[in-house]
Design goal:
7 strands, 8 helices, about 240 residues, alpha/beta, binds NADP nicotinamide-adenine-dinucleotide phosphate, Rossmann fold
C-alpha cells in the first residue's frame, strides 16, 4: 500500500507517517521544511519519497502532488494534514488571509487532485484533518471557519463519490487538543499525546470511518458545543 501525507514535517502528520511506514506502507511526505522531511525519511523503516510543497502556492503544490504520485507509481491513501492558525491578540488581516490560503484554498487544491486521481483509478481513500474547532465559530474566527469548510467539503466529496458509485473512502478527522506546536498556551485541556492521536487516526483510516473525533472523548465536547445556546457559547469561548 502507498500513502501520501501532506504536511508531514512535524506534529500529527510526522507521527502518522511513522505509523504508516511501520505498517509497511510506502510513504510520500511533504511540507515546506525539507530538512525535517529528510530527517524523517532517514528514520522510516520503509521506502519514502520527499516532496517540497507550500500550499500557499497552489500551482506549485498541485504540480508537486502530481509529480509525487507519478514518482511513487501510484497511491492508495492521501492524508491532507497541513494546517495553520494564529492567536495574535492584535488580530491582523494577514493572519486571516494566511489561514484561508493554507486551510481552505490549499486544502481544496489537494483534495481536488486526490479526488480526480482516485476517480480515474476507481478506488482510494482521502483523509482530511479538520478540527473540533470546525463544529462552531470561535475567537480565532478564520481558523474555526476554515475547519468548518474542511469538514463540509469532505462531506460533499463523500456525497459525490456515493452518487458516482465509486469505491473512494472519505474520512473527516476532527482532533481536539493534541500536544504539538499548534496547541500551546492558555485554556488548553485534555491535550492528547501526539502518538495517541496518530494511533487513533490510523485506526480510523483502517476502518474507513466517515467522521472521527480524536481522541474519542472529543465527540462528547462536540455534542455539548453544538447544543449550547449562543449566550452560553459566547461565554465559554471568550
Ligand atoms: N494540535 C492540535 O491541537 C490540533 C487540533 C485540531 C486540529 N489540528 C490540525 O492538525 C493538523 C496538523 O497540525 P499539528 O497540530 O500537527 O501542528 P504542526 O506540527 O504545526 O503541523 C502543521 C503541518 O502543516 C504544515 N504546513 C503549514 N503550513 C503549510 C504550508 N503553507 N504548506 C504546506 N504545509 C504546511 C507544516 O509543515 P511545514 O511548516 O514544514 O510546511 C506541518 O507539517 C492541522 O491541520 C491542524 O489544524 C491540530
Amino acid at each position: 500500500m502507498k500513502a501520501i501525507i501532506i504536511g508531514a514535517t512535524s506534529g500529527i502528520g510526522r507521527e502518522l507517517a511513522k505509523l504508516l511506514s511501520d505498517e509497511g506502507y510506502t510513504v510520500g511526505i511533504s511540507g515546506r521544511r525539507t530538512a525535517l522531511l529528510e530527517s524523517l525519511q532517514a528514520e522510516l523503516p520503509g521506502e519514502c519519497f520527499v516532496s517540497e510543497m507550500d500550499l500557499v502556492d497552489v500551482q506549485q503544490s498541485v504540480e508537486a502532488l502530481n509529480e509525487l504520485i507519478e514518482k511513487m507509481k501510484g497511491v492508495d491513501l492521501i492524508v491532507i494534514n497541513s494546517g495553520t492558525g494564529s492567536i495574535d491578540p492584535d488580530y491582523p488581516l494577514q493572519n486571516d488571509l494566511d489561514t484561508i490560503a493554507v486551510n481552505v484554498t490549499g486544502f481544496t487544491a489537494m483534495a481536488n487532485v486526490a479526488y480526480h486521481y482516485f476517480s480515474e483509478q476507481g478506488s482510494g481513500h482521502i483523509v482530511g484533518i479538520s478540527s473540533i474547532a470546525g463544529v462552531r465559530g470561535g475567537p480565532i474566527a478564520s481558523y474555526n471557519a476554515s475547519k468548518a469548510y474542511v469538514s463540509s467539503y469532505l462531506e460533499g466529496l463523500a456525497c459525490r463519490v456515493y452518487g458516482q458509485g465509486t469505491s473512494i473512502a472519505i474520512t473527516d478527522v476532527r482532533p481536539g487538543f493534541v500536544d504539538t506546536a499548534m496547541a500551546q498556551g492558555e485554556g488548553i485541556f485534555w491535550r492528547a499525546p501526539v502518538e495517541k492521536a496518530a494511533s487513533q487516526i490510523l485506526d480510523a483510516i483502517k476502518d474507513k470511518k466517515r467522521v472521527v473525533y480524536i481522541t474519542k472523548r472529543w465527540r462528547l465536547i462536540a455534542w455539548i458545543l453544538k447544543a449550547a445556546p449562543h449566550q452560553l457559547y459566547r461565554k465559554l469561548m471568550s
